[in-house]
Write a sequence for this structure.
């Protein structure tokens, strides 16, 4: 196979106040012609820096390439001048960025933004360039390309903008396309469309793609080969099947194990303890040793070289050395492990009979000027004691608003919320409200804005105790704080520290400790893991599961990550445009989705399993089929015990018939 | 592979007995304000500003007592003397040797042996005393105005943002109208009515000055209200008092301090400006503005009368601006990692 | 807009009523002048009717008569004086914006270099040193000592150089600082990286993608900028004896010529309101997000 790009021992550093941060520490890989190479890693692993370095787009200062070679067409790009690089950028190598909302110039029409690089690199007239731009827009699937040419970016939706960005990137038929997390900022259904588009374009234009991502599902979907990065190094590289079905590096094991698989069911996720090292002073030896449960003495002394597993598969871990003891990777990694789902389900059904929370016709409208946004538009559901109820949906569907309205952060426009049969949305005396605030608690999404930067961890955690007068003395208060810190896996010494000293996952656990401080029965978790890296997500989810078991908590788990929701929830409600369209036992929902939207949502989730991904078909949901206010309004109807679907009377009958036929 | 295989002994492959999974924290413990101070100190310009202001403040407080002359002590026999400072008088280009622009030693002419460091004015008043006295009054007016602005602005902006809804709407309409009025003109008109004096000048500046602070506080509180830690506190059942004192105020301090740092030089400028167009303090009281105004009248013959007050007002303004800039950088959460 | 103006007009009306030495109760006025005023404002009538008449007169452009110039209409005085001020203001604004923007861009592109530091030192000094101090410095060194340029009066272009420089220093400093901050912010945006990734050179990136986006927030400071220019003209015209509106205003304050003070105040207010209006319109022109959604920026 022809190598189109080769990177040898690339090193990139950033000069900061504190000193030199070695973001990329000797990365070597090559890109074959016509393949898609995925680089996966968590935030701070250096994957984005690597990709930007290939085009020398690292802001300098503070960043600089301190060593290595980037060989493209026989030239070493590291030695190229800025002028020479300008010729390569956009024509031979081009790039797609993460956030389509910010990667287009808001004050320039999309047409002009596409034309720009065509004129620059292909020396065409403005007229020719315009024709080409129309063709490009058509190619990436934008309807009415002639008209859309003169639109501004804000007139497009997120997915459409990303298509425009792609059109810009492929405008000069690049040999190499670097896609830096191109779907991370998008909803799953849009993500599925963009991935499909990229794959088709890649086949048609025979470009090679370097695809940066943190999502193993996306990798399984799109990649031919995979490079796993950790702490500025590639720790494992190989064909996608090799990485997913025969991983060799303990970090890869951890990453794969930390992700729940939709098709599988396991009790506990594998976590990678701790957090990535500080690259200001990278540790000696293997940077992963600190978090590696199989760490050996040598890991702390010598950096492991790349060991060859097969012709295409290499991994940097001492475990592959001939003198190393043989270690068997954890169970959960075995392919397609089937657990008897039905038994589990029965178990779950048995434990929930007592209604804890009933939401009845809840509405939350926001008005800004003359237009009213119906964020939550008449939803109904119950939550039983001790269960986890998952609420999923894409951005803007009203799931977070639902959570916030239940706990009365917003005053509901209409409807009732009964907690233990008491309507908690009544105007009532403050004493009851206080009690309610003790019973219902919330965990928030953003680990950075959910903790007051001016308070110590102890004060943050003890806030609820202070409000409700739960600690009678300073000593008792501190004692409780220590206890909570240990419950969530932190140390006593952390009590006097400030939030900014902690990592995202640690902060999220402080947030959980704060909620637990008032001994609540019911916790609303509003996207508690979506801002965290995969391995950290697993830590938080495991913690939540453990707490549920120990304290008998009930959860409302709001998220857009369907695989996590399925993993943690007993029952799931799917929201779309302010309404619940389907509600069922989680297993039932995934096995037997009935609503068209649920089907499309489920089919859009990429699974960390390349074999399945290759044969999966996506189901598209036609938005125009959704009830638009005319004709019979579909309502939630129970089609089968515990399985509710939003449908019209007619649909209901036909679904019923189907079930009876079975 | 550059690793020497012989060095790799068997015992290196024994499991390491490190404590796995401890929650290490890489950052040192440091309180917010200590960190702000650390960053502020690193900013050389801001630090110089701080030192300059300290010196000027000290001189404004103690300067007038450095000699026996009072700020209103007239003596025509020693009128219009150029500055003369011991030792520095040897350095000719500094212009503090007691000779005027014609090169005549006025001290010899008038037979005066005393040194007037900043010279004297046309009524023979000691300019050193008058300049520091004036600085004192200017700073007094400016700081007073800034403080009143701060109080009104914080309360107004805070109430407007915190309660929101209709209250906010009405309060914002009022602010919009006030913003639409060129403030200096209102100040001028008010002083015409109130007659110039320390209190009236301060009041006139405050009448429009608080709006800026109110807007900033409102903006900040609106932003904070949506922060998840405020929501978290609400879900825990926190009452207004707790939200305001524990969450909103501590996190609004930064912008408030920065704004105040920029209000002070503006107020000093406004006061000087008013003096300059004839609406300043009445003699014999001096402020930097009135001194500059007086100095202008004799600019061509006795430039020293303008020089010192101008230099000091410029230094004050520069210092406050530098400190403000430094604080803004030091308090900016974006810089915080 | 209109509300603001009405409030200012009402405010001036009440000031007229209460001021010692206002046209309504000044002892220095001759009988004939008083009669004229009484007739004009109908002072024998009750206050509300006086107020209505006063407002009606304002809308007709009648701002009363000056004492100092023996009954000359204020609007005539404004008309005669506005020319020099307008020239001075426009020159300063144009030079200030141009130099400021260029300085700001250069500082941003050469971020953290000696050029950047030098530009920012100049800006801080320009922002801090009061314009009357700066004008004095210029007048003394360039005018009196070096004798390069005339120090006073208004008899041709060279007479306008020193006042223009004195006035524009503040504009330059403010705009340069603002431009630098905005440009740095914009240059850190993703779409700038996108533009670079297309292979555009730095000049094209800054000019085509940076400038317009950085300029949008600059428009916000145009309002306050005009006010500071306006007040600047008061002192600068006085210092350089420019026969403009500002100089007249200061003179009127010294001589307690209230009708002129009030008239000019109202005129300034209208000017300011007009600028705010223009700024709003400019927003739409330069920012497609506002133009196309039809809304205004908060």
């Amino acid at each position: 196979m022809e190598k189109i790009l080769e990177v040898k021992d690339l090193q990139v550093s950033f000069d900061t106040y504190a000193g030199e941060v070695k973001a990329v520490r000797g990365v070597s890989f090559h890109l074959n012609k016509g393949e898609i190479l995925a680089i996966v890693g968590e935030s701070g692993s250096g994957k984005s820096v690597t990709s930007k370095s290939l085009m020398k787009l690292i802001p300098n200062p503070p960043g600089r390439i301190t060593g290595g070679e980037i060989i493209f067409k026989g030239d070493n790009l590291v030695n190229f001048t800025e002028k020479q690089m300008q010729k390569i950028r956009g024509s031979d190598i081009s790039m797609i960025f993460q956030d389509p909302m910010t990667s287009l110039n808001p004050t320039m029409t999309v047409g002009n933004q596409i034309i720009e690089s065509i004129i620059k690199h292909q020396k065409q007239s403005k007229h020719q360039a315009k024709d080409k731009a129309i063709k490009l827009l058509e190619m990436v699937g934008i309807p009415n390309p002639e008209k859309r040419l003169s639109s501004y970016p804000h007139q497009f939706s997120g997915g459409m903008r990303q298509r425009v960005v792609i059109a810009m990137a492929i405008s000069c038929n690049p040999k190499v396309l670097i896609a830096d997390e191109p779907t991370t900022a998008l909803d799953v259904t849009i993500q599925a469309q963009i991935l499909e588009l990229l794959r088709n374009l890649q086949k048609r234009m025979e470009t090679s793609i370097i695809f940066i991502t943190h999502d193993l599902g996306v990798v399984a979907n799109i990649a031919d080969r995979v490079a796993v990065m950790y702490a500025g190094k590639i720790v494992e590289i190989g064909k996608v099947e090799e990485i997913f079905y025969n991983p060799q590096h303990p970090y890869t094991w951890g990453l794969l194990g930390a992700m729940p698989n939709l098709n599988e069911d396991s009790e506990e996720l594998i976590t990678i303890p701790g957090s990535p090292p500080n690259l200001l002073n990278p540790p000696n030896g293997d940077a992963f040793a600190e978090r590696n449960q199989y760490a050996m003495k040598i890991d702390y002394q010598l950096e492991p070289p790349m060991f060859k597993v097969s012709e295409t598969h290499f991994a940097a871990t001492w475990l592959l050395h001939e003198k190393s003891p043989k270690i068997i990777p954890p169970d959960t990694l075995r392919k397609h492990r089937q657990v008897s789902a039905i038994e589990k389900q029965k178990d779950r059904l048995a434990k929930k009979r007592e209604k804890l929370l009933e939401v009845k016709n809840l509405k939350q409208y926001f008005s800004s000027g003359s237009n009213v946004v119906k964020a939550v538009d008449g939803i109904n559901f119950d939550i039983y004691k001790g269960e986890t109820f998952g609420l999923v949906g894409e951005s803007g569907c009203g799931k977070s608003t639902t959570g916030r309205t239940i706990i009365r952060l917003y005053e509901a426009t209409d409807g009732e919320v009964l907690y233990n049969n008491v309507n908690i949305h009544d105007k009532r005396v403050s004493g009851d409200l206080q009690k309610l605030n003790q019973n219902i608690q919330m965990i928030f999404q953003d680990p950075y804005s959910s903790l007051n930067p001016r308070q110590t961890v102890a004060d943050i955690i003890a806030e609820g105790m202070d409000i409700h007068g739960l600690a009678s003395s300073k000593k008792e208060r501190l004692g409780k704080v220590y206890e909570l810190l240990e419950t969530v896996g932190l140390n006593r010494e952390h009590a006097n520290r400030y939030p900014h000293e902690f990592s995202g996952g640690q902060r999220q656990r402080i947030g959980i400790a704060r909620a637990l401080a008032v001994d609540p029965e019911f916790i609303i978790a509003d996207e508690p893991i979506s801002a965290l890296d995969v391995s950290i997500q697993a830590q938080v989810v495991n913690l939540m599961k453990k707490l549920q078991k120990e304290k008998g908590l009930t959860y409302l788990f709001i998220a857009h990550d369907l695989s996590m929701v399925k993993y943690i929830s007993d029952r799931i409600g799917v929201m779309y445009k302010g309404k619940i369209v389907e509600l069922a036992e989680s297993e039932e929902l995934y096995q037997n989705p009935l609503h068209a939207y649920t089907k499309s949502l489920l089919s859009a989730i990429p699974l960390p399993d390349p074999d399945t991904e290759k044969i999966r078909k996506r189901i598209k949901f036609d938005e125009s089929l959704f009830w638009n206010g005319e004709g019979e309004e579909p309502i939630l109807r129970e089609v089968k015990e515990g399985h509710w679907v939003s449908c019209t009377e007619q649909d209901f009958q036909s679904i019923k018939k189907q079930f009876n036929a079975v | 592979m550059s690793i020497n295989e012989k060095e790799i002994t068997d015992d290196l492959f024994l499991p390491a007995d490190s404590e796995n999974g401890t929650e290490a924290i890489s950052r040192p413990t440091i309180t917010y304000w200590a960190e702000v101070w650390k960053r502020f100190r690193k900013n050389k310009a801001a630090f110089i500003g701080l030192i300059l202001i300290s010196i000027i403040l000290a001189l404004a407080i103690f300067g007038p007592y450095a000699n026996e002359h009072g700020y209103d002590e007239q003596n025509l026999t020693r009128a219009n003397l150029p500055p003369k400072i011991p030792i520095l008088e040897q350095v000719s280009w500094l212009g503090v040797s007691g000779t005027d622009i014609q090169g005549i030693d006025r001290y010899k002419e008038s037979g005066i042996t005393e040194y007037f460091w900043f010279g004297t004015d046309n009524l023979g008043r000691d300019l050193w005393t008058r300049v520091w006295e004036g600085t004192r009054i200017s700073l007094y007016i400016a700081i007073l105005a800034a403080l009143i602005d701060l109080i009104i602005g914080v309360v107004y902006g805070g109430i407007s943002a915190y309660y929101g809804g209709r209250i906010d709407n009405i309060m914002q309409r009022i602010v919009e109208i006030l913003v639409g009025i060129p403030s200096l003109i209102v100040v001028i008109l008010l002083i015409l009515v109130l007659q110039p004096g320390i209190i009236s000048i301060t009041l006139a500046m405050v009448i429009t000055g608080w709006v800026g602070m109110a807007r900033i506080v409102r903006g900040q509180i609106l932003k904070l209200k949506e922060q998840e830690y405020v929501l978290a506190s609400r879900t825990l059942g926190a009452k207004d008092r707790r939200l305001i004192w524990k969450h909103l105020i501590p996190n609004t301090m930064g912008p408030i301090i920065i704004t105040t740092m920029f209000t002070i030089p503006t107020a000093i400028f406004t006061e000087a400006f008013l003096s300059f167009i004839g609406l300043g303090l009445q003699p014999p009281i001096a402020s930097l503005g009135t001194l500059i105004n007086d100095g202008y009248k004799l600019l061509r013959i006795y430039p020293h009368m303008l020089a010192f007050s101008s230099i000091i007002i410029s230094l004050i303004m520069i210092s406050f601006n530098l400190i403000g800039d430094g604080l803004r950088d030091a308090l900016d959460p974006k810089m915080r990692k | 807009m209109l509300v603001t103006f009405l409030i200012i007009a009402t405010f001036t009306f009440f000031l007229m009523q209460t001021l010692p030495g206002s046209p309504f109760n000044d002892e220095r006025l001759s009988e004939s002048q008083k009669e004229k005023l009484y007739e004009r404002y109908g002072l024998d009538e009750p206050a509300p009717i006086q107020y209505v008449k006063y407002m009606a007169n304002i809308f007709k452009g009648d701002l009363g008569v000056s004492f100092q110039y023996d009954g000359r209409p204020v609007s005539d005085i404004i008309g005669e004086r506005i020319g020099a001020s307008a020239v001075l203001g426009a020159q300063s604004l144009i030079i200030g914006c141009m130099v400021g923007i260029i300085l700001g861009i250069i500082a941003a592109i050469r971020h953290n270099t000696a050029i950047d530091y030098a530009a920012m030192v100049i800006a801080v000094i320009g922002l801090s040193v009061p314009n009357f101090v700066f004008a004095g410095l210029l007048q003394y060194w360039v005018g009196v000592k070096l004798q390069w340029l005339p120090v006073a009066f208004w008899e041709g272009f060279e007479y306008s150089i020193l006042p223009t420089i004195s006035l524009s220093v503040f504009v330059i400093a403010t705009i340069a600082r603002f431009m630098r901050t905005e440009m740095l912010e914009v240059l850190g945006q993703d779409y700038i990286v996108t533009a670079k990734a297309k292979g555009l050179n730095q000049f094209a990136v800054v000019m085509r993608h940076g400038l317009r986006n950085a300029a949008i927030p600059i428009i916000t400071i145009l309002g306050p900028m005009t006010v500071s220019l306006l007040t600047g003209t008061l002192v600068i015209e006085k210092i350089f004896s420019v026969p403009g509106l500002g100089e007249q205003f200061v003179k009127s304050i010294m001589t307690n010529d209230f009708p002129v003070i009030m008239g000019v105040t109202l005129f300034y207010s209208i000017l300011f309101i007009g600028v705010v209006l223009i700024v709003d319109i400019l927003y739409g022109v330069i920012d497609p997000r506002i133009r196309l959604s039809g809304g205004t920026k908060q």
